[in-house]
Specification:
With 252 residues, this protein is an alpha/beta fold. The protein has two domains: 94 residues, no CATH class; 138 residues, no CATH class. The strands form three sheets. Strands 3, 5, 6, 8, 9, 10 and 11 form a seven-stranded mixed β-sheet that branches. Strands 1-2 form a two-stranded antiparallel sheet. A hairpin with a 5-residue loop joins strand 1 and strand 2. The longest helix is centred in the first third of the chain and has 25 residues. The radius of gyration is 24 Å and the shape is elongated. About 11% of the residues have low confidence. This is Lia operon protein LiaF.
Length: 252
């Protein structure tokens, strides 16, 4: 969907530019093509930023960081074009304090506990008291309480560790998908030897070790499936993605 939106605004920009050039060439209107482009591309930045923020609100991807940055950057460029302020493209470096703002919000979220929404396979959702599950937070996820119930879940963090001890868990007789995603951190899973599972693990930079099978380096992936996974009633379907860090799965 994001690709379609980008193609759409690019097409609109080309159409608008073409119409402007035609009107100028046939003498109906006088435009300065360079000045017109200086208004068009900041507008595209603003639209792109709004799109990313809306996608984030609707939980369809997107990014608060990049969305707000492009919105602010494009808006400042437009204000310059209409002589409200002075701000040109090379002034982008003046926006570096936004990094401080972003990290400030990040640490506010990391210190805030609350209800994490865990989406289940039947379309319902369950609230769990824990650190905020947003991709824009820092903190650790630990599931190691006695008899904790394993349910389908999506866990994500900007940075932090994930520790799931399935040897202490109550695991229903069904296939249970678990997705873990983070920019940086370590993932450690303890799995009882009588539990069937399959895993797709991916790291941009780091290492993966699944029951003795290991890879390390840049852009590494590892897929593993236990021998009786397909026929088992009780099993885990694991999908783990890290930008940087380590993924480790051990039998206990």
């Amino acid at each position: 969907m994001r690709k379609g939106f980008l193609s759409y605004i690019f097409a609109v920009a080309l159409i608008a530019l073409g119409i402007i050039l035609i009107l100028e060439n046939i003498g109906i209107a006088a435009f300065n093509a360079k000045e017109t482009w200086l208004v068009i591309y900041p507008t595209l930045f603003v639209l792109l930023g709004i799109k990313w923020m809306i996608d984030r609100i609707r939980h369809k991807g997107g990014s608060w960081v990049f969305g707000s940055f492009f919105f602010i950057f494009g808006s400042l460029l437009l204000l310059d074009r209409f002589d409200v302020i002075q701000f040109v493209f090379k002034d982008i470096f003046k926006l570096w304090p936004l990094l401080i703002v972003y990290f400030g919000f990040m640490f506010i979220n990391s210190n805030r506990s609350g209800n994490v929404i865990i989406h289940t396979s039947d379309g319902k959702s369950k609230k769990k008291y824990y650190n905020n599950g947003s991709y824009f937070t820092v903190g650790s996820h630990e599931y190691n309480e006695p008899n904790w119930k394993v349910e389908p879940m999506n866990l994500s963090n900007l940075a932090g560790d994930f520790y799931l001890d399935f040897t202490k868990a109550y695991i229903p007789e069904k296939e249970i998908p678990i997705n873990i995603k983070a920019l940086a951190g370590d993932v450690h899973l303890l799995i009882p030897e009588n539990l069937e599972f399959r895993i797709y693990a991916s790291v941009k930079a780091g290492d993966i070790d699944v029951i003795g099978q290991s890879v390390d380096g840049i852009n590494r992936t590892l897929s593993y499936e236990t021998e009786r996974y397909e026929e088992a009633e009780r099993k885990l379907d694991l999908n783990i993605t890290l930008k940087a860090g380590s993924i480790r799965v051990d039998y206990v």
